[in-house]
Amino acid sequence: MGDLIRLLPDAIANQIAAGEVIQRPASVVKELLENALDAKAGRIQLILKEGGKQLIQVVDDGTGMSVTDARMCFERHATSKIRQADDLFRIRTMGFRGEALASIASVAQVELRTRREDDPVGTRLLIEASAVQIQEDCATAKGTSLSVRNLFFNVPARRKFLKSDQLELRHIMEEFHRVAMAYPEVHFSLYHNDQEVFHLPPANSRQRVVGVLGPTTNARLVPVEEDTGDLTIRGFVGKPETARKTRGEQFLFINRRFVKSGYLHHAILSAYEELIGEEQHPLYVLFLDIDPARIDVNVHPTKHEIKFEDERLVYHFVKVSVRHALGRHGMIPSLDFEADHSLATSKFDVRSGDATIRASSGTPAPGSGKQDWQELFRVLEKPLEEENPQPAVPDPFAPAVLVDSGSTAPSESHHLMAERQTVRPYQIHQRYILTPIKSGFLLIDQQAAHERILYERFVERMQGEPARIQKELFPRTLDLNPSDAALLESMIPDLHRLGFDLEPFGRQSFILHGLPADMDPHFDAIQLLRQLLEHHRDDLPLKPGHHENLARQMARHAAIPRGTPMTEEEMLNLIDRLFACEQPYKSPGGRAAFITFELDDLDRRFRS
Predict the structure, then answer these.
(1) Percent of residues, the chain, with pLDDT higher than 90
(2) pLDDT for res 396
(3) At what angle do helices 525-539 and 482-498 cross, to 10 degrees?
(4) Dihedral (CA of 514, 515, 521, 522) sign
(5) pLDDT of amino acid 108
(6) 3-state helix, strand, coil in the chain (%, to 5)
(7) Are 526 and 488 in contact (CB under 8 A)?
């Protein structure tokens, strides 16, 4: 038997390496932008077509390359950043391994044009699948222009797994955001399909963050700045009241390199302890400067992970710095012994599914005082067999409207409907609704129940006739960052079916002319659209059923929140509408909408 082990050809070795370094168009953008920064560029242009699948071009005015360097940069492990092993612990540049360009050239058609400032002419290289097709002199501006066309053209299995243009563009913008925020002194611009998406002239750090994340970000920022000599931190964190339920505005940089660190993310969340909810995420854009000898960035192909010589020290430094910034700007609350604001009443019209705030009248909300406890006792003392021959509201519990696919059997649901009594429901802790039935009682989660009601209505609208639109007397404007603006524009047809009259107004702005006719005009529709955009951005690539996803997100954000007081009429309407749903047992997110407590089980528990 002959020898079996052999050396792979360079082209195959480069394709294997490309699988680690180049995963999608955004990976190419990251590597090319970092190379431009390492070349000391003051102006960088990113040009894209079809989400980067057809063309990715980066043009910079950096130092440029000689003829020899232009050819050598596409060889594996060819780099100008390090000379010996010890240099790995003194890295200040973005790139250093010498793998990126070789990997890109192995799976794409690449054209390089470059010229140094003192050279009379530049160099043009055309490379396809690692093979140099053309090398010649050319006339070109100082700096480098590198075009990557038809990514993965020779690896069809990889190309077919690329996502839609919109999704690939979103990933590219994430990389663009990270690089642009780390280098505010550099002029960045981004074009997609011949349209300018970003134009970011040189600015200070705050201006650059606002330019990337959108104009509404400015009012949310709290500056952070601490220096111990060995460690420096600067940047911004968000005010606690602006924290969101989804991630996406968390940026952490070590020596200007974007990193993902669950450990330091936990340190920042710890600084917000008792200021935000457990499932909320604050905005932060933080830059840590540390001696390169005390960190290791060579632990992951994308360089997004990092190791510290003393993690505990960095953890506590970040936590204390953020906490100090919040306290210095009055974000740490003081004790307040005034009246409990939770006693203020609100109105929620469950019949239309919309919330409006009712001015406080000083009257305790249902479920908040001694009188309500006495009322609870009166309800519970009623004989369970007692029937009211004149129900307060029409009974909607007809078996024909229920289709059971949950854990409760059809016979059980019909049994619940038959047992329902027309007695006063009772709200517990402004979260749950207690209503007796013959065999015991139901405990309804008011938020989950209302999400189910709204979800089925929104799905019906998106599959049938569009909702009626109520025109706004004064149209409202919504300003977004470019990436969110592109996503919202793609959602406009679906939002129109839900009853939102929304149209683009300029490059990053939209005008809201009308709302669904059954939505209260005082409802904060702008905030709803922002929250909807956040979840749609995160969930769209992960879950099937585009319309169902949008309906689920709409229901989640428009539903009555926990802690909202409800009147007796509102509770009765919520119960009626819940059991008129096709699937009343669970919220669209899978949370139980109600729980049944059987009288026999209660008796056994009290006897035990």
Answers:
(1) 33
(2) 32
(3) 110
(4) negative
(5) 92
(6) 40, 25, 40
(7) no
pLDDT band at 149 (very low <50, low <70, confident <90, very high): very high
Taking all residues of the chain, what is their mean pLDDT, rounded to a whole number?
78
Sheet holding 187-192, edge to edge: 131-138, 122-128, 109-115, 143-149, 55-60, 43-49, 187-192, 195-200
The C-alpha atoms of residue 534 and residue 355 are separated, in whole angstroms, by 21
Instruction: Identify whether the C-beta of residue 126 lies closer than 8 Å to the C-beta of residue 111.
Output: yes
For residue 139, the Cα-to-chain-centroid distance in whole angstroms is: 44
Kind and range of the H or E element at 595? strand 594-598
Q: Determine the Cα–Cα distance for residues 264 and 246; give it in Å rounded to an integer.
A: 18
Asked if residue 433 lies in contact with residue 575, where contact means CB atoms within 8 angstroms, the answer is yes
Pick 463 or 275 by higher pLDDT: 275
d(CA 559, CA 578): 13
352, with CB counted inside 10 A (0-12, 13-18, 19+), is middle
Please report, in angstroms and rounded to a whole number, the separation of the first and last CA atoms in the chain: 79
Distance CA 127, CA 415 (A): 73
Buried b (16+ CB within 10 A) or exposed e, 563-581: ebbbbeebbbbbbbbbbeb
CB 100 within 8 A of CB 79: no
How high is the pLDDT of residue 423? 66
Given a cut of 50, is residue 410 above it in pLDDT?
Answer: no
Which class for 357: exposed (0-12), middle (13-18), buried (19 or more C-beta within 10 A)?
middle
Question: pTM (2 decimals)?
Answer: 0.66
Better-scored residue on pLDDT, 276 or 391: 276
How far CA 447 is from CA of 257, 350, 548, in Å, comes to: 42, 11, 19
φ/ψ of residue 61, rounded to 5: -110, 35
Q: Tell me the pLDDT tens digit for each residue of 43-76.
A: 999 999 999 999 999 999 999 999 999 998 888 7
Write out the H or E segment, with its range, that includes residue 293: none
Residue 19 above 70 pLDDT?
A: no
Domains detected in the chain: 10-202 (3.30.565.10), 212-328 (3.30.230.10), 342-450+564-607 (3.30.1540.20), 470-558 (3.30.1370.100)
- Does the structure show a pLDDT above 50 at 361? no
Angstrom distance (rounded) from CA 24 to CA 159: 9
> Which residues is 45 bridged to in the sheet?
59, 189
The contacts of residue 370 (CB under 8 Å, 6+ apart) are none
Q: Which helix (H) or strand (E) covers residue 473, if one does?
A: strand 469-479
Residue 416, phi then psi, degrees to nearest 5: -65, -40
Across the range 539-547, mean pLDDT stands at 49
DSSP 420: B
CA–centroid distance for 291 within its chain: 32
Flag whether pLDDT at 542 surpasses 50. no
* Residue 98, C-beta contacts closer than 8 angstroms, at least 6 positions apart: 75, 76, 77, 78, 79, 81
> 478 pLDDT exceeds 80?
yes
Query: CA angle, 474 as apex, 472 and 475 as ends, to 5°?
Result: 70
